[in-house]
Amino acid sequence: MVAIKQVSKSFGASRTEALQACTLDVPAHEILCVIGPSGCGKTTLLRIVDGLIRADRGQVFVNQTEVTAPRPDVAMVFQHFGLLPWKTVYDNVAYGLRVQGRADADLADAVSRYIDLIGLRGFEKNYPYQLSGGMQQRVGLARALAVNPEVLLMDEPFGSLDAQTRELMQEELLRVWRSQPKTMLFVTHSIDEAVILGDRVALMTRRPGRVKEILEVGIARPRDPETVRRSTRYLELREHIWHQLKVEVVGGNGQ
Amino acid sequence: MSAVAEQGRAAGRRETVAGLPPAGIRFLSVMVGLVAWEAYGRALHSVIFTYPSAVVRAGYELIVSGELQFYLKSSVIVLSLGLVLAIVLGIPLGILMGRRAVIEHAVDPYVNALYATPLVAVIPVIVVWLGFQTKAKVVLVFLFCIFPILINTYQGVKNTDSRLVEVARSFCSKEWRLWRDLILPSSAPFILAGIRLAIGRGLIGMVVAEFYTTITGLGYMIVQYANTFRMDRLFVPVVVLMIMGVVLTGVLRHLERRIAPWLYVAREE
């Protein structure tokens, strides 16, 4: 579904290399978690897949067509939520559909379906600033799902939430994914999150980011996070990933 | 200790004197000022001084004779025409400056130069070119008003959260949709603050224009009664101007809070 082929990207006058020949494939309905030390270009990679920025070298294909600009079959959920503060929950969820030119009468069904799915019923008329961080990200998720994309790009969506809310949102995402099994590229810096959610986990090196290793999680779905956390496979993966990440993080700090 | 004082302390403010709420202190302060003025004015018995009760009486006379309404009307027409013109031209130009680098750099020197110029200096020029009629006064008010609106709109557009612009692009928003969904609402508080500043400047422009063109308006009333030493009547248009300024900027400030409630949440909590 998503094919990232040898993507490289540099920034600024000094041409600091953020990504170096990244190659990843995400089959349909798979959740691929990307984990790496901060500043390794994970977010850059997502922005390239979304078509927000162009790669210097290499190509990205979604559904066999090359990504050259943002497209309606790919939607992104942002770490900073990215809600419009002057729009209500309802209008924020409807935003993507309105931008695509759908008429109000035409989109009401879809919007209210996703408001129900994400558990926002009763908050339609609230403004984002009246909601907690977790609720705001539910709006962000509903907005992305409402355009019915084939691919969801998750840019550390729960990164700015507190630990408890974060775990609740992970369960919530697993529940939503069961009814809407979207192809998902999920960037995170939490090992726990990557193992709980992912079918596979891609480990990245420190800058310039390369794919270091791809791990099969191999834990059956549907998953219950609490049970998963007690399994030996979880502990094994956690230890392995942490071991690999530590090398990158410590190395990145120049020893 | 009173509950009010405790609340004040909880809000991190200094304790209020004698447990009075801020509004009470304000009211008392104004009363003390007025009474002192009245007492001093009555004791002085001077031709070139006046006191509040005399101003109130003069105001009553001017309203009964219809003189105040007549001059007020012409002033209000000048102010509103100039202000509306400044809003209608200032906002789109400000948005264009904020979104298009060519226009930004082309217009910037003019805006900077004219905003820095004390506009009172160009009044004689405008009078020579446009005469003593409403047209000249409207143009002057417009010149006084447009810069805060233009500059604030431009700042507001520049201040639009670039992360939200990226969200809009991610959802494949067209440029015109971006203006409507993002640029305008996010700069609305800036634009309203600009209009509020413009009203203050517009009032100055209006009065000064009326001083120079001396045919009608509240400014003309002031000049006329100053020349004849009718100090009580002179203060009537001054008080009216004060009320106009306070009410108009108050309404705008209220609108600012209404239109962008999310900006005030942190301050209220």
UniProtKB/TrEMBL annotation, chain A:
InterPro entries: AAA+_ATPase, ABC_transporter-like_ATP-bd, ABC_transporter-like_CS, ABC_transporter_ATP-bind, P-loop_NTPase. One of its GO terms (molecular function) is ATP hydrolysis activity. Signal peptide: none annotated. The keyword Protein transport does not apply. SUPFAM superfamilies: P-loop containing nucleoside triphosphate hydrolases. Residues 2-231 form the ABC transporter domain. It comes from the Bacteria. The keyword Cell wall biogenesis/degradation does not apply. Keywords: ATP-binding, Nucleotide-binding, Transport. PANTHER family: ALIPHATIC SULFONATES IMPORT ATP-BINDING PROTEIN SSUB, TAURINE IMPORT ATP-BINDING PROTEIN-RELATED. This is ABC transporter ATP-binding protein. It comes from Candidatus Segetimicrobium genomatis.
Automatic annotation (TrEMBL), chain B:
GO terms for biological process: transmembrane transport. The chain crosses the membrane at residues 76-98, 110-132, 138-157, 178-197, 203-222, 234-255. CDD domains: TM_PBP2. Residues 72-252 form the ABC transmembrane type-1 domain. Gene3D superfamilies: MetI-like. It comes from Candidatus Segetimicrobium genomatis. It is found in: Cell membrane. This is ABC transporter permease. Belongs to the binding-protein-dependent transport system permease family. Keywords: Cell membrane, Membrane, Transmembrane, Transmembrane helix, Transport. One of its GO terms (cellular component) is plasma membrane. InterPro entries: MetI-like (IPR000515), MetI-like_sf (IPR035906). It is a multi-pass membrane protein.
